[in-house]
Design goal:
The protein is of the alpha/beta class. It is globular and about 65 Å long. The longest helix has 26 residues. It is about 40% helix and about 20% strand. A five-stranded mixed beta sheet has the order 3-2-1-4-5, sandwiched between helices. The two termini are about 25 Å apart. A hairpin with a 2-residue loop joins β7 and β8. The structure holds 5'-O-[(R)-(carboxyoxy)(hydroxy)phosphoryl]adenosine (KG4) and zinc ion.
Length: about 325
């Protein structure tokens, strides 16, 4: 089954063609047009600007994905499109394009949840057969969630952030220290410059709370007050970046491992834009494997927003015949898993 995936939930216009067969996935193309260069000067995504860029980019991106996959519209079996969560003005470009193509090519469509798509980024070319139930930590610019995956399409959220998402916290920390946009890769690059004895201590909010929720806005405040009190902070950016990153990692690892044990899962998976963070990948892998879980993380190219993960989520939905008439496709910016 050949699936065309379309993703426009935030500031990446993306299209991909995959071929799925018996649970195995072959990626035929993965095209992402990122707007980072445009939004960088505003230090964040400007929805109106993102919407206009999606409109300009969507058809060239889909065309490139089809050409790269050496596939014509008529050879596609299903169209999968992200319907939420995300920015409403961004989502509608992908959705309306999917509707138009489904109408023109007379194809079935499947509606995909963006968080679910991030989870399926682990199913693209897994190093081992994935054993369920699994616990998935999804950490992105908009979400921080611990999700129990009991089967294909069977998800239960057991914890989420009460305020800022992990990626958002990285982005805000970078803003406070003037490091660049989007913040995550800049904070982690500066953190790598640090070696030596740690003197700065930042808060680790909710690390010992009995639930599986997170809160990262207190950590950002803790960084803000520490910087305000420290006249020399500009000389200590690597140490601040290192401690900030480690505070996030400590909380994420502690809660993920505790949840994995409580729900007796076989597998622990990481996903979302922040899963590109090298330290998080390595430290969580080490800890999860020590606790006896199979650990999976997406290939780096599938960590941040892309349409291959959307196509894969769509493939597993299509296998269960979860199609939708194109007329019923609708954006839902607050869609939950
Ligand atoms: O999944 P994604 O592309 O978009 C959303 O769905 O939100 O995630 C983007 C987020 C941004 O907040 C970015 O700063 C963060 O992922 N990010 C990272 C790294 N690379 C991207 N955070 C920490 N370390 C990284 N290396
Ligand atoms: Zn995302």
């Amino acid at each position: 089954m050949k699936v065309l995936g379309i993703e426009t939930s935030c500031d990446e216009t993306a299209a991909s063609v995959i071929e799925g067969s018996g649970g195995q996935i072959k990626v035929l193309s993965n095209i992402v047009s990122s707007q980072i260069e445009i939004h960088k000067k505003y230090n964040g995504v400007v929805p109106e600007v993102a919407a206009r860029e999606h409109v300009l980019n969507i058809l060239p991106v889909i065309n490139e994905a089809l050409e790269k996959a050496d596939t014509k519209g008529g050879e596609i079996d299903v169209i999968a499109v992200t319907v939420g969560p995300g920015l409403i003005t961004s989502l509608i470009t992908g959705i309306e394009t999917a509707k138009t193509l489904a109408y023109a090519w007379n194809l079935p469509v499947v509606a995909v949840n963006h968080i679910e798509a991030h989870i399926y980024s682990n199913f693209i070319e897994p190093k081992e057969k994935i054993k369920l139930p699994a616990l998935v930590l999804t950490v992105s610019g908009g979400h921080t969630q611990l999700v129990l995956m009991e089967g294909y399409g069977k998800f239960k959220t057991i914890g989420s952030t009460l305020d800022d998402a992990a990626g958002e916290a990285f982005d805000k920390a970078a803003k406070l220290m003037n490091l660049g946009y989007p913040g995550g890769p800049f904070v982690s690059a500066r953190a790598e410059e640090f070696s030596g004895e740690k003197k700065i201590e930042l808060a680790r909010p909710m690390i010992n709370s009995s639930d599986f929720n997170f809160s990262f806005s207190g950590l950002k405040t803790s960084l803000l007050y520490s910087l305000k009190k420290d006249k020399d902070w500009k000389k200590k950016i690597p140490e601040y970046a290192h401690e900030f990153q480690q505070a996030i990692i400590d909380v994420l690892i502690k809660k993920t491992v505790r949840a994995g044990k409580k729900y007796k899962v076989e597998t622990v998976m990481l996903s979302g834009g922040v899963s590109a963070n090298r330290e998080l990948r390595e430290q969580l892998e080490k800890r999860a494997e020590k606790e006896g879980f199979l650990f999976l993380k997406p290939d780096l190219q599938y960590t941040t927003d892309n349409a291959t993960m959307v196509a894969v989520a769509g493939y597993f939905k299509a296998k269960k015949k979860e199609f939708m008439p194109w007329k019923n496709l609708k954006a839902n910016c607050n869609l939950e898993i």
